[in-house]
């Protein structure tokens, strides 16, 4: 009686579906020594995909989650710790000798887990970073094995420090034994970092855009997972995927809730509404916080998009929702797309990113 659906963290094995082509592509690029930039909105499954691809590749790899890094010294600590975790215990001392600034090292005798802490003065930070970024290459050369380094949520680099991009690029470009994978969730920022000629990482890696999971494949995944618990979802799977628009995270979230609430062996449509409203209730605190963080005009635009099919810059829209002008509406929409509240896919209508939040808004206004 375990819930056959999971959401929130990285998914693997039976909780992970499809992506065969993406895995194949990523593995073959990496094996060819090609750096990669993997891009998609949040929660499409980038981290899960890279985990799977790394498993398939059987290469040594580390992941640096840039979201968790506070500043440059923190990055150096984390980087060195992760790099050392790849090498054999007996060799660690030798690698440490090469560092110009010596860290304080603690080793857990049972797990062999290492913690690294540098205490660096401002004037030393540049040296510290150079040494840290160089370490994996030294280790890889020594092991006579290539290493993959995955930077997750790489756009966060700009929050950590403005000099990091140049520093990294300057060192990475000479590495013969490391393949770099950059994962990014904020498309505009990732494009700026990798596609603007003025920036150090211009054209550093091959771009791969991750899309949602195709409907037929996702549909058979959903049916199969319910079926593993002897539940027949065939009648409603289309409606589930219509509600979530095949979004990997929201689909798993909805199915997870349906599984909890359902009492029958064959699912019927009512259960979808029940699950949606249950999720909206559970997340009331978050949803109202998001709502209260919006300006008045942003609220008007969001209400309009949630309720109507008009384009937000049309006369009908701005009249009906009391917005000053089409250009005001347009710039609010751009801002909300940039921060991920709204999404726009090529040729499609602009939508609210979180379908449960949308329902919460509509419900509260009824
Ligand atoms: N291939 C997949 N099959 C099924 N569910 C997936 C898949 N990829 C992602 N998901 C769902 O989406 C959620 C977010 O995945 P994650 O890898 O954290 O996305 P990202 O790194 O893009 O933010 C997972 O917890 C899971 O519920
Ligand atoms: Mg991720």
Commentary on this structure:
This protein has 366 residues and is an alpha/beta fold. It has helices at 20-31, 46-57, 72-84, 92-97, 125-143, 157-160, 164-172, 187-195, 215-227, 237-244, 248-261, 270-282, 284-292, 296-307, 315-320, 326-338, 355-365; strands at 36-39, 60-65, 104-107, 114-117, 147-152, 178-184, 206-209, 342-343, 351-352. It is globular and about 65 Å long. It has a five-stranded parallel beta sheet, with helices on both faces. A two-stranded antiparallel ribbon has the order 3-4. It has 17 helices and nine strands. Helices cover 50% and strands 11% of the residues. It has three domains: 19-209, Rossmann fold; 215-282, Helicase, Ruva Protein, domain 3 (Orthogonal Bundle), CATH 1.10.8; 294-365, Winged helix-like DNA-binding domain superfamily/Winged helix DNA-binding domain (Arc Repressor Mutant, subunit A, Orthogonal Bundle), CATH 1.10.10. The longest helix has 19 residues, at 125-143. β8 (342-343) and β9 (351-352) form a beta hairpin. Adenosine-5'-diphosphate (ADP) binds next to α2 and α11.
